[in-house]
Amino acid sequence: MSYFCDNIDKLKGYEPGFQPKQLDVVKLNTNENPFEPSPKVIERLRNITTEQLRRYPDPIGNQFREAAGELNGVSAEHIMCCNGGDDLLNLAFRAFCDENRPAAYPVPTYSLYPVLAKIQNCPVIEIPFDREFNLPSKLVATNAPLTIVCNPNAPSGTFISVDEIASLADEISGVLLIDEAYCDYAEKNCAALVKDFDNVIILRSLSKGYSLAGLRFGYAIAQPELINGLMKVKDSYNVDAISIALATEAIKDQEYFKANIEKIKTERTRLTDELRNLGLKVPNSFSNFVFAESKDSSAARIFEELKKRNIFVRYFPYPGLENKLRISVGKPEQDDKLIDALKEILAA
Ligand SMILES: Cc1ncc(COP(=O)(O)O)c(C=O)c1O
């Protein structure tokens, strides 16, 4: 007999990418930013006071909301602080879905969505992408109370135009959550859509572009009515005092942020070219990872061989993804080690 609810008992929980204990490995498996966060963030960390630790934090992180509103051209009322982007996804499933209220999304995509759906006992409508990862037209007609589009998509790294997403927001009857965890690496984003559509929620993360995956901070942008509804569902103090202070500092330092993003984009182009030269098929990426397809060798074998050499990339053992590896863009020296190893493995 189990103590758990049936759905939790049957649930295969989300499997985060492997976090090796050793530091002297090439870690390209969880899309962390290989560069350090802004020095201003570190400075602020050093100046955290005991009083900030003794007291409860501002429950809604107004300091951050003001800064994020300014950055995105909206008022602070359009922003909600979250304990990582994952917190917002969890809140959305709890707020909009149940046994009779499905969630719809194109697949393959972020593998956390179906896990959160199962926790909520919520049916899912998974609509396959075509080979080019275009927005599936069938997504419009699902009638789902919650539709999620990950843009740029993970694990493909592909990008759907803002106009197409705007049309989707216009046509569906439910909420459209646009997961922009990787938008810092794309040329455009959908933030402006919240002005025209009362059903759009934008998800942002500080884990990637701001090099703060360890901090756990993300945020939502939406019209105040949606933000206020989501606030009812969140933990009373879902973000802590240190993370509010550091996240605010990070988004204020746009000069550092932009330089950090440019370094990744330059390296992404080089990595893509190198992988293509090795005979791998790599679509243009709009994120901080590339999705490489091997025509001849199995991705599982390449993954294992890389692992033996202490190089970690991500392999998803799911139908349709068998021949593909998701590789985070690393520092040039890390990517060089990957390329050298791949040359050896593919030649064998
Ligand atoms: C597509 C996507 N959305 C959201 C997240 C959540 O990011 P975080 O909770 O680190 O902000 C991730 C993390 O890897 C992701 O890949």
Short description:
The chain has about 350 residues and is an alpha/beta fold. It has helices at about 5-10, 40-45, 50-55, 60-70, 85-95, 110-120, 160-170, 195, 225-235, 240-250, 255-275, 300-310, 330-345; strands at about 25, 80, 105, 125-130, 145-150, 175-180, 200-205, 220, 290-295, 310, 315, 325-330. Helix 2 runs antiparallel to helix 10 and helix 4 (about 60-70) packs parallel to helix 10.
Cα-based radius of gyration, to the nearest Å: 20 Å
CATH class of the largest domain: Alpha Beta
Sheet having the most strands? 7 strands, mixed
State the helicity in percent bands: 25-40%
CATH architecture of the largest domain: 3-Layer(aba) Sandwich
| Element-level helix/strand string | HEHHHEHEHEEHEHEEHHHEHEEEH
The ligands found in this model are: pyridoxal-5'-phosphate
Kindly report the spatial arrangement of strands forming the biggest sheet: 2-8-7-6-5-3-4
Instruction: Please work out how many helical segments DSSP would assign.
Output: 13
Quickly give the structural class.
alpha/beta
Helix/strand layout:
Layout: H1 6-10, E1 26-27, H2 39-46, H3 50-54, H4 62-72, E2 79-82, H5 85-96, E3 103-107, H6 112-119, E4 124-128, E5 146-150, H7 162-171, E6 175-179, H8 193-196, E7 200-205, E8 218-222, H9 224-233, H10 241-252, H11 254-277, E9 289-293, H12 299-308, E10 311-312, E11 314-315, E12 324-328, H13 332-347
Parallel strand pairs: 1-10, 3-4, 3-5, 5-6, 6-7
Antiparallel strand pairs: 2-8, 7-8, 9-12, 11-12
Bound molecules: pyridoxal-5'-phosphate.
